[in-house]
TrEMBL record:
Keywords: Hydrolase, Protein phosphatase. Belongs to the low molecular weight phosphotyrosine protein phosphatase family. Residues 1-147 form the Phosphotyrosine protein phosphatase I domain. This is protein-tyrosine-phosphatase. SMART domains: LMWPc. Gene3D superfamilies: 3.40.50.2300. The active site is at C7, R13, D121. GO terms for molecular function: protein tyrosine phosphatase activity. InterPro entries: LMW_PTPase, Ptyr_pPase, Ptyr_pPase_sf, Tyr_phospatase_low_mol_wt. It comes from Entomomonas moraniae. Coiled coil: none annotated.
Length: 152
């Protein structure tokens, strides 16, 4: 199973989602069965490590995302991943305008069956927005783990 997390810049939401899900997969003993990666709709931050605010909140919660590097989504990703999870409706719209492959495209929080469906962009926000982002990521990733346990 291969899951790609996607947001606009690949420096705030999707690398954080990648870090949280990978951590929880390790805890659940599923890390060998599920490959997680992240990418951005845009390539402005190609090669950049995640936003320092995201790194800080991640570290406070026991996740290490400092080694991740941003990349732009590629045509191959639509076939090489089983599931592509966009963080907000704009991400989904952009993903659906690209050439499609076999990958299922869904909103991260929808796939996780969470009450909220959208992960708002914290880039122009403050530390509280980043904390809220991680709250949602943790709830969502826990739900994804439960979902995967039933599938794998
Ligand atoms: P992200 O946040 O999509 O969660 O990584 C953003 C980061 C950078 C930009 C936009 C959103 N940007 O326009 O540079």
């Amino acid at each position: 199973m291969r899951i790609l997390m996607v947001c606009l810049g690949n420096i705030c939401r999707s690398p954080s989602a990648e870090g949280v899900l990978r951590h929880k997969l390790k805890q659940a003993g599923l890390v060998d069965k599920v490959f997680v990666d992240s990418a951005g709709i845009g390539g402005w931050h190609e090669g950049d490590t995640p936003d320092k605010r995201a790194q800080k909140v991640a570290k406070n919660r026991g996740y290490d995302i400092s080694g991740l590097g941003a990349r732009q989504i590629q045509p191959d990703d639509f076939s090489s991943f089983d599931v592509i999870l966009g963080m907000d409706h704009n991400n989904i719209k952009a993903l659906k305008q690209m050439p499609q492959g076999s990958a299922v495209i869904d909103l991260f929080l929808n796939y996780a069956h969470a009450e909220r469906t959208e992960m708002v962009d914290p880039y122009y926000g403050d530390m509280q927005d980043f904390d809220q982002m991680f709250d949602l990521l943790e709830v969502g990733c826990d739900a994804i783990i439960q979902r995967l346990k039933g599938q794998l």
